[in-house]
Structures
1.
Amino acid sequence: MPVLTWLTREHDLKSAQNAPYRLLEETPELSAGDAATENMLIQGDNLDALKALLPYYAGQVKCISIDPPFNTEQAFEHYDDNLEHSIWLSVMYPRLEMLHQLLAQDGTIFVHIDDNELGYLITIMDEIFGRKNRVSIVTFKQGSATGHKSINPGLVTTTNFLLIYAKSKNDWKPNRLFTGRERDDRYGQYITNVEEHYENWKLIPLSQAFAASLHKTAKELKEMKKELGQEYEDMLNDFVIKNSTKVVQPARPDYSNVGEAARQMIDISKEDASKVYLLERDGYSNMYFNNGQRWLFYKDKLKEIDGELIAGEPLTNLWADLLSNNLHNEGGVKFPKSKKPEALIKRVFELTTKPGDLVLDSFLGSGTTAAVAHKMGLRYIGIEMGDHAVTHCAPRLKKVIEGEQGGISQAVNWQGGGGFRFYRLGEAIFDEYGQINRAIKFPTLAAHIWFCETRTPLTPAPLPEGDGKTPLLGIHNGTAYYLLYNGILGDKRPEGGNVLTGKLLQLLPPHDGPKVIYGETSRLGDERLRRENITFRQIPYDIKAR
């Protein structure tokens, strides 16, 4: 397979591997809502943050949606989006490698990009994710050819793109989605007596039925249409939807492409055009025929989208119904020229997730992805490097918790609740010799170990000093977890606080059940460990990090 070459490629191929492993340290004053939530908002370089997440979430993220810098040679308020191609590639390649490791086997990644780096992005994603796992390239209508853009000669750019890749296309199982469409005016006939036996059904023009519902003559209806314009069309559309079991389109089937039973019914119906004939089918819609034509019912075109019955069609790779204009107030934060509509992210998640799945955005921007995930009942991780992790993302998510009603809130009936925890990147866990960095504090390492073992946050955090200090992190599903580190028991000699000895074992808070103990080493034999129901994990080798 062809690969892309750039100036720093060989160095960049090792960037993910060489990134330091850092622990995540919670900043409680910036967290909000339910303290037991697994939702994470992380401030820091996203390469280091992704590396920090690997022990927790490798192979577990169901959907990744990112909106990286487009490299448009423009200066935005919150981004330096003017990178040389090789620098842009050096940023993207290692991060996409990390994201590939985090993605679940049946997971999906969406990358939002414009045409400036589109070709390069396709090439490196084909290399990392595999060309065979490329699902689609969606064209997303970003705006309209209006305003100052329409003044310049040449083509007006109104679209962006979404590159969609599966971790494994063989395991990829998307949801079936429909989008709204305009009323199909080919459905122009109306059954006047649908309550009678189907053999006696009679048709009149739809316009005649609509006029009768408004107590109007044909002439008055025509004048009304001219006067009201779009309002008239909306009224007619509502009438059709409310009467979708009566609105039909007579259509002549392709005789050679229907089954034997349908062909027989077509022939019979031609013999007596005064009657309607029914072909009942198990597991499928019944078929009605008259004078060689099949009556297609408008009700079969309706789909429930955001709780509303509308005419729908299967989702295509052209998304022209989710414009990015008028977004300045969405989410209650300003993010000029960079904010994406909540409806766009909602569609991404509807296509690939179900409630409770884990999603991730490592270029969080104004927090749209996290806000949408929160409202849709998904677990989420958002990473943002800049100050707007504090000034934009956290305030936006707090509003969501409080029940903010912008964006998709009404479509998903959002009422508020939930929470998130705010994290920053701490010290690198290992020094250059592969040992635990001396700057790592007991509470930080304890929180990391607890989460790796139990997949739940450690609450409350352990105390590093004073009367409350203890090596017992907690009990989860009947197993007690202990950490012997930094002389937590007050004795920093090797035979004291960090090494599991028979004497130290007597000092540990007791537990009548399985015990997992982390420490520098154990001086208890295998038989003693089995007898005491202890699983010993050695620091640093058994710390899940690299």
Note: The radius of gyration is 31 Å.
2.
Amino acid sequence: MLEYLHVKNLALIEETEVTFYPGLNILTGETGAGKSLLLGGVNLALGAKASADSIRQGAESALVELVFSVHHPTVRDTLAEMDIYPEDGEVIISRKIMKNKSVSRINGENVSVSLLKKAAGLLLDIHGQHEHQSLLYPDRQLAILDEYAKASLAESRAETAEAYKAWTAAKKELSGYDMDEKEREREKAFLQFEIGEIESAGLYKWEEEELEAAYRKMSNARSILEALGQVHELTGYDEGAGELIGRAIQQLSGIVQYDDSLSELYSALSDVESLLNDANRTAADYLDDFTFSEEEFRQTEQRLDEVRRLESRYGSTVEKIFSYLEKQKERLEFLQNYEEKLVQLEQELAQAGKQLETAAGKLSEGRKKAAETLSAGIITQLSELNFNRVAFEIAFTRKDTCTANGYDAVEFLISTNPGEALRPLAKVASGGELSRIMLAIKTLLAENDETETLIFDEIDAGISGRTAQMVSEKMAAIGRTHQVLCITHLAQIASMADTHFLIEKHVENERTVTDIKTLDAEESVGELARILSGSRITESVLENAREMKQLAEEYKASQRKQAI
């Protein structure tokens, strides 16, 4: 339920706060006072396209904030799937509109507009002033039927969507099999050549690194031998460092017995001598073992050139060459089994098509059953909205193609006068009639819907008199099970208000300002009188308004008793 609305710096609204209540919340006011502007603010908060022009002149930004209490367990579960969790039973939605951007938040966390719209669809349903015109579009009519029967159709709709997904996947895979035989043979020959060249090379993973190390060693053999010979000589005992360290140790050994503190120096020199001996032997061993073969050098150089040639053609490293090899083998296997796979895919596509046809057929049958119930319900609702002896039917045709939503196309047909043939809504219904038909549909959908709040913007378009009275009774009926916010110009509808709000425009400090306030019982009667007579409100008009309000209260009381 929508509990609270806060609007700041939006067009004519400087700042206003409204607390809404359960049941039927009616909003009235003079034409141009800003009733639809308030609804526009709600739409902005729920993800409608924002414009910098909507910011009040002189302000840097506009803000709309909505607070919902969420009671329905299904709604709470669905919100949880979006990682939205009511805090103390409430969901707070806000949107800040700035010159070049807008920021949307749910419970204080930034969210995308798409997530905002998805969450909003669970929390309330807005019927805009011209939305009833959407009834003229077949796609919208099918959506209404699916929404009405969503529980019974859920399984078959999911099966159809899954079958369509499988069919499109099979079709896409099959579309890749469009090569002729000559083209396949040419590619097979090329692949076999590349695979053969790589495999015959006998590469292994670390070969390039080993070849580079061996090549580097052999190409620098002279420098290595000359330098290592010097190292051996300088660390040895033939006028080398080993001889000098040995002399130092000999000198120290004669005096270490006289001073214990010299033992540490003696030990250090002994360690140095040991290390020098090790280094000298290592250098000697390397020199003894070192061999150089011109043939081996040439072979290493040629092998390294071959590896690098393969890398330039098939991959920048040996590892990438192996990856390329596997890819080419897979492609070759694909071409070698092309005909068999083609037949298999054609069979799979045919099977997927049959499964799609079966699922779509099941969905269509479910829709047709639901259409009968919906049609009967709409006829009942319309008879309560002053459509006398109305006939209504949902006609089905089959589309040329099947989609994830099946193959059905539907059209709402109506006859508003006895003896007249059923005809499409677009050819029969006036604006006022469409508005009542949409109200009848909304009433039926509300019975199956978890959405707790419904908003109607001027549902009274094109109606008056007895029809207006029946519409008001229908709105009151919806208000018994849902929270309803309704903007209206008709006294009959306004009289049914459980809570009545007045939206008015006035001038403050040379600026036009729109405000909203809650009316008490007597103020509501005064507003009804204004709607009935305009600017001149006489005592008889006030009496008429009081009677209208009293009759409305008596009607609602009687309906509550019947519901018990």
Note: The domain at 2-129+451-521+550-563 is CATH 3.40.50.300 (Rossmann fold).
3.
Amino acid sequence: MSLLITLGLSQAVVPEAFFLPGTHFDSVHVLTSAGTKAEMLVEFFATHAPGVRWTLTRAEDFVDLTSEEDHFRFEEVLLRWILEMEPDAERRHVCLAGGYKTISSSAQRAAAALGAAEVFHVLADSYLPGKDGKPRSPSTLAEVIEARDTHRLHFVRLGGEPGWPQLRRLSAATYPLQVRVGEGGVRWVRASNEELRHHLKGIVEQSQHIAASWSDMADLPFAELATWPGAALKWLGSPVDPEEDADWIAGLPKVELHCHLGGFATGGDALERIRMAACDPGRLPPIRPMEMPEDWPLPQKPVGLERYRQLGDNNGSALLRDPGCLKAQCRELYRHFVGQRIAYAEVRCSPANYATAERSPWEVLQDIRETFEDEMQSAEQAGQWMCHVNLIIIGTRQSMGDYRAGISRHLSLAVTAAEHGRDGKRCRVVGVDLAGYEDRSTRAHYFREEFVAIHRCGLALTVHAGENDDAEGIWRAVFDLNARRIGHALSLQDSRELSASMADRGIAVEMCPYANLQIQGFDIGAGPGREGRYPLMDYLQQGIRVTVNTDNIGISGASLTDNLLLAARLCRELTRRDVLQLQRNALDAAFVTPDVRRGLLVRLAEELTPPGAHGRRG
């Protein structure tokens, strides 16, 4: 066992502490100031404890306690000294008897934070005659031995300290002391800063914040928010300012659940880069002149679904059939995710639509997977921001023709991919999306038999519903097709009973503010109960697991940050805390394994910091 003790003016305290009943110390470490005497210690260990290893360490920049600054400098040395002298908390016995009262207090706090087998105090009877005629306690080595033999030493044993879990990985290597060795092997030490003391102070403050937030913790999007000060939580509870909070939202870690691969890079420089990567440029379709609607991307009037889709014609299946263009599209999209600080994304794709006579849908899917996988590995190896990407296979409804056969081919590919999803790669096919033309003749229940295999194989299902159809289309997707998520669900607000059922079941809604406004049209800033109001805030307040996404980044001309900022303009009562709740909802609704979800939760929580910690980045 190791004895760690600070030394003030009375050298006797060290041998007194050494006689702690029932404890055999094989090492003793003494920390003191620059000017204290230590002759008694040399004599004691030479004559009474010759086999015990002992060290004397002096704080180089601490002569006497004359100010608060002196105390804090010594406390920093004390903390680092404990880590260095005895790394094993189960061997530490910390004595509080030596030095100023403030130093004893620091020793007790250090033991509580870093851990100790025992914390104790030693008392010696005042029974010896003093020069002033008053009794005094032992001051010489002989007197200490006599006090021990006559049972005049008393110990106050305060028990052990488990230490704070947050500090269990600390070591002297993390917070080293600057050491020089003087005469007689005395170690002189100093700390270059007060980093460790400030670290402990921060943990104490966080603990106090947690206590203050205890009753509200269950309602916080992330439990780590309970460590924030009250002023920061109050700031979170205020409505988003789309201009003031743009940088904060841009810096947030995010989750993207509804993003179409083919809807990215539909024009401009991005499209040009995709085309330049072509393996066979001569077979690329020509670029069609594209007249954008007036005031795009925030048109005064909605353009409808068909016009919206046409805006993506320059980046459709004809372009992505070229392997070079397809891989470039994946790389560009991945780097967009990184720039948006997206930690997890599910990308929707239609590999069968990109297949040719030379390349099967399976080969196309493998190209998509491997490109995203390579980007993820490169980012991780370089220590850069890494976005975990998974894939969702799209089955497209149409208004005419034998589109069921096409859907069956997409579903077969998804099932095969699911069976090959145990190859160690992180980029996996995790679900299927029933998308495309939506009306009463293409509601989800018509495809019940086709989707049985999807559920049998453990794949998740999301369904575009309630965007162009009424609430019945959502009902059919939820109760006939067992959808875990619903894309858009704009008409869900028309059915109070269905809304309550979806909230109870935890079925998520994937809303895409820019696409929703562009296709359907909503009034910016319309209050509760007003016609034309965007329903996102109402869904949140009803307990529905709402998420915000992009849909088609290139067509809509909007990133995930843009969509979150537009959500705040559409729903002016949306708070910063709601923005965090949207990210937590997306994480909870993601089609991932529990282990991956836990890892992402830790990662998102670690990236959240109170306003002002890094500028205003969250």
Note: The two ends are 45 Å apart (CA to CA).
